[in-house]
Design brief:
alpha/beta; 17% strand
């Protein structure tokens, strides 16, 4: 087992229909058995959060203590495995790039299922993913009793992991450590189902396990009947149909439910087809939007298992900060997407407003407001303090060298200009780390004559660094991350929060000095940490707009305790 994965988290996907093996529904025993089996395979994760479980079940009343995903047993094994594949790849796409991660699939025989084989091969081709497979052993090696009942213990799981490893090696889809990064996870190999929708018997909602999760998820419509009044010649079913058609035209094909917000009690005629009806208290438009914002937050707290879209069919909210902030916060979450409909510039009659074309026009107006939402949100008091605070940049020159034709002074100016453009008003200090005899510039350097270094490429490089205002730390290549950690620690001791830290490097997790852990620690004690990881090290680093996007307001915490900004995508 390669060292990055030996200490990484493991996410276990359990197909409890093919492998009904949870002992006495005791999650602690399941956790201990799984951890012991992983240790046998050289994986030693954190004691507290080193292993997570996701169970695919046919009966939601069983297996307490584990996040559950219901699958219809009557659909057959192939359909069940296809659902697991789409969930696996969507979840992996969401987690891609965050940290090294192990996946353990405890499923039935997949030797004839090409889709899950392709998915395993795809994930194993990613540098930060490693897939372990638990499979039934060959019949001649199986030790199950004649009754067919199997005892779930460490030996059982280890034997299945061994059989799964043999199958992976036989199929040639094992883990590789190629330096070249393969295509992104959204390039899923064919054939795969575009979606798999099943019905939860408990409450009747559709659970969507999808490659395009937002497009296949259900959509909950919040309809403000004061801003979009129901005309006399329409009823709520007509409105539902028009909304459904407008969403389908935009590529949203999930189930649509409508919640109407009314002023009049009892419910007037025409709204019988709505799924829910709420009555708003009397007040001005701001108070009305505030009540809708609170209903939206309440609904989102109840929808935590599956992806959900929320469509707001409301009046002009461009100046309502509470509702805008609620929308922005939900759109930062993986499971939610807010679709906004706003009155179009050329406001039609009420009948046309709720027609399919009218709703499409409102959705286009809402798209425009959503694109401006970050600029409209005022900074919190904490964000204002961060904008006024000093900033420091730690730059790995080996990972991200200065391109040929550019100088250190130009690089320094680009970075400082990005801070200035994004309204960071404090002093900016830049520290660069590399070895002067390494290829930090395009020409070879001669370090044989130290007295003549000012005339050599190395000497020119050092002189360029001195003139740029960058603090250059000449350190051996294999020790630069250790040096970065030491200098970062020394800076943090001398600097008081709030302050801003930008780290420029290709892979913050790929070192033994726990730089990522230290940066996360700084976040918890009120430092604003921005990690700039250019995919194109030679070009993107000096793209002014790209640097500005790294420093955008979405990377600042909305509150002092919020960490949702780290998930921005």
């Amino acid at each position: 087992m390669s060292s990055p994965f030996a200490g990484a988290k493991t996410i276990v996907l359990l197909d409890t229909i093919d492998c009904p093996i949870i002992p006495n529904e005791d999650i602690s025993e399941l956790l201990e058995i799984t951890r012991s089996a992983l240790e046998e395979n050289g994986i030693f994760g954190s004691i507290y959060d080193g292993v997570e479980f996701r169970a695919f079940v046919g009966d939601t009343v069983m297996y307490h203590g584990i996040p559950l995903y219901w699958i219809d047993e009557t659909e057959g094994k192939d359909a069940r495995l296809s659902s697991i594949v789409t969930f696996l790849l969507d979840y992996a796409d969401y987690l891609d790039g965050e940290a090294f991660l192990n996946w353990m699939l405890v499923v039935g025989d997949i030797s004839e299922h090409s889709e899950i084989q392709q998915a395993i091969g795809l994930l194993n081709s990613r540098r930060k993913f490693n897939v372990l497979l638990a499979q039934p052993p060959p019949p001649q090696d199986a030790s199950s009793s004649s009754s067919g009942e199997e005892l779930f213990n460490k030996e059982w799981l280890c034997s299945r992991l061994s059989a799964g490893e043999q199958l992976i090696n036989k199929l040639g889809i094992g883990k590789t450590f190629d330096k070249e990064e393969p295509p992104s996870l959204n390039q899923i190999p064919e054939p795969l189902p575009s979606h798999q929708v099943v019905m939860v018997p408990k409450d009747g909602y559709d659970v969507c396990l999808s490659r395009d999760m937002a497009q296949r998820a259900r959509t909950c419509v919040f309809w403000d009947t004061k801003a979009y009044p129901l005309p006399a010649d329409l009823n709520s079913y007509d409105v539902w149909q028009n909304i459904n058609d407008a969403l389908s035209e935009r590529g949203y094909y999930g189930r649509v439910s409508v919640t109407a917000f009314l002023d009049d009690y009892p419910c007037p005629p025409g709204f019988a087809g709505c799924d829910y009806v709420f009555y708003l208290k009397a007040g001005d438009i701001d108070a009305r939007h505030g009540q809708i914002a609170r209903h939206l937050l309440t609904a989102s707290r109840c929808d935590s298992i599956e992806p959900v879209n929320y469509m707001l069919l409301v009046g002009d909210i461009s100046e309502h900060i509470e509702l805008l902030r609620t929308i922005h916060m939900l759109n930062l979450k993986f499971s939610f997407k807010v679709i906004l409909a706003q009155p179009p510039p050329q406001k039609p009659s009420s009948g046309e407003l709720l027609s399919k074309d009218g709703i499409c026009s409102s959705l286009s107006a809402g798209d425009k407001l959503l694109s401006q939402i970050e600029q409209k949100l005022p900074l919190t008091a904490w964000q204002e303090r961060l904008k006024a605070a000093n900033s420091v940049v730690f730059w790995d020159l080996v990972d991200c060298p200065i391109p040929v034709g550019l100088t250190a002074a130009e690089a320094s100016q680009t970075i400082r200009s990005a801070f200035e453009k994004m309204n960071y008003r404090g002093t900016v200090t830049i520290h660069a780390f590399g070895e002067v005899i390494d290829p930090l510039v395009s020409e070879p350097r001669d370090m044989e004559s130290p007295g003549e270094n000012e005339n050599t490429p190395a000497g020119e490089f050092l002189e360029d660094m001195n003139q740029s205002g960058i603090v250059f730390h000449n350190t051996p290549t294999d020790a630069r991350r250790e040096m970065m950690r030491e200098k970062l620690t020394a800076w943090a001791v001398k600097s008081t929060a709030p302050a801003n830290v930008m780290v420029i490097l290709r892979d913050v997790f790929d070192d033994e000095f726990k730089l990522a852990d230290y940066l996360e620690l700084l976040r918890t004690i009120d430092y604003n940490v921005v990690i700039a990881r250019p995919q194109n090290a030679l070009g993107q680093l000096f793209d002014f707009e790209w640097l500005c996007s790294r420093l955008g307001d979405r990377f600042l915490p909305q509150t002092r305790s919020s960490d949702s900004y780290t998930q921005a995508k």
